[in-house]
Amino acid sequence: MENTAENVRAQMRKGVLEYCILSILNKREAYASAIIEELKSVGMIVVEGTLYPLLIRQKNQGLLSYRWEESTQGPPRKYYVLSDKGREQLAQMDAAWQELVDGIQTLKQA
Amino acid sequence: MENTAENVRAQMRKGVLEYCILSILNKREAYASAIIEELKSVGMIVVEGTLYPLLIRQKNQGLLSYRWEESTQGPPRKYYVLSDKGREQLAQMDAAWQELVDGIQTLKQA
DNA sequence: TATAATACCTTGTATCACAAAGTACCTAAA
DNA sequence: TTTAGGTACTTTGTGATACAAGGTATTATA
Questions:
Q1: Domain assignment of residue A27, given as a range
Q2: Which DSSP state fits B28?
Q3: How many CB atoms lie within 10 A of CB B6?
Q4: How far is B60 from chain A (nearest CA, A)?
Q5: CB distance from A16 to chain B under 8 Å?
Q6: For A71, A106, B54, B60, which has the most beta carbons within 10 A of its beta carbon?
Q7: What is the pLDDT of residues B49-81, one digit of tens each?
Q8: Measured on CA atoms in the order B8, B9, B13, B19, is the torsion positive or negative?
Q9: B110 found inside a domain
Q10: Measured CA distances, B55 to A63, A101, B28, B29, B88 (Å)
């Protein structure tokens, strides 16, 4: 599982979702349902069965950690937090995303 | 195999490549190797084994047609041409792409 | 003590893209 | 004329992403 700039760009084609998760958690810690709500609010439909495995994957890669927190309205929540490694990954993905956007814009001109 | 605006956006998450192919063929007809070269020129590495099945898929969906053309430098080439249906699909994908770009920008603010 | 709501998790499936290998055509050199 | 090399198109097997659907567990309320 490499992590070159080229690999990041390859990952970008699939897995825009992974980029979105890191971007959300870069602003504030959050639990799964809140993440889904925020994604929906910008037009990205995501379901639980997609998000949970993704969060677990990112946690196993050391990009995230989590802590349990009691809720006043139901069962405890798993709040995810971006790690230093996650912030590095996010920086790489920011660059890759910008390159993709620029690349497509270039394609459409000419 | 539906084709709602929502479905287009879902497709966008994977399959940015499909969007790129239609965008290239919207400018001019082209054969596979030329398409690969143009994609490489904007930083998107694509290999034959990815592109050929994709072109066949799009042709089977009626988005493209092709014609054979003799080459002075080797075997004949399959030149792909965007169909009316392909142009419609491209217009939908243009909108979906813009929404995705806007959505991510919104995510990163706030 | 049921019931509903919230939250987390798992399994099976379809699709995308890649790696690797194969087929076919054309040209030029031996 | 046969061989080698380049160009172009195709197929097969694999890994990863996301979805659909269903399941488990906790909490509050009727």
A1: 5-108
A2: S
A3: 12
A4: 23
A5: yes
A6: B54
A7: 999 999 999 999 999 999 999 998 899 999 999
A8: positive
A9: no
A10: 36, 22, 15, 13, 17
Mean residue pLDDT of chain A comes to 91
Taking an 8 Å cut-off on Cβ atoms, the answer to whether A38 and B101 are in contact is no
- In single-letter form, the type of residue at position B52 comes to Y
B53 burial type by CB count under 10 A (0-12 exposed, 13-18 middle, 19+ buried): exposed
Place of tokens 């958690």: A25
Dihedral, CA atoms, B37, B19, B97, A10, nearest 10 degrees? -50
Amino acid at A17: L
Euclidean distance between CA atoms A42 and B109, whole angstroms: 12
Least Cα distance to A3 among A95, A65, A66 occurs for A95
pLDDT in tens, A42-59: 989 899 999 999 999 999
Residues of chain B with Cβ-Cβ distance to A15 below 8 Å are 13
Q: How far is the C-alpha of B29 from the C-alpha of B35, rounded, in Å? A: 9
CATH code for the domain in which residue B31 is found: 1.10.10.10
* Number of folded domains that form chain B: 1
Q: What pLDDT is recorded for position A72?
A: 86
Q: Does B47 touch chain A (CB under 8 A)?
A: no
Return d(Cα A20, Cα B13) in angstroms, integer. 11
